[in-house]
Amino acid sequence: MSSTSSQRAVYARIRNNPRFTELVAKRQGFATVLSIIVLTIFYGFFMVVAFNPKLIGQRLSESSYVTVGIAAELFMFVFFWLLTAFYVKRANGEFDAMTTDIIRDAAKEVK
């Protein structure tokens, strides 16, 4: 069996593996949920800027130099960073483990 046909056989086994379908569905669902969260917060902030700019410029307290807009942006920065860390942790843990198992199973069948 040539190298190319061997690779095709491995790829076909991977695509036909029900665990691969499960992996794709889990990853896609997780990415979709995170994308919806990020886009809602991000565009929600800009909608507030567009339709209620006075709120963004309002100070948090009388003696504060920090405005609602600055606090919101700091929250978004930290929140998006945490979401990224959460995604990386899950991707490097659960998703990579599933991928390794799927590839190992497909490679065993070829030999």
UniProtKB/TrEMBL annotation:
Transmembrane segments: 29-51, 63-88
Origin: domain of life: Bacteria
An annotated GO cellular component: plasma membrane
UniProt-listed InterPro entries: DUF485, Inner_membrane_assoc
Keywords: Membrane, Transmembrane, Transmembrane helix
Name of the protein: DUF485 domain-containing protein
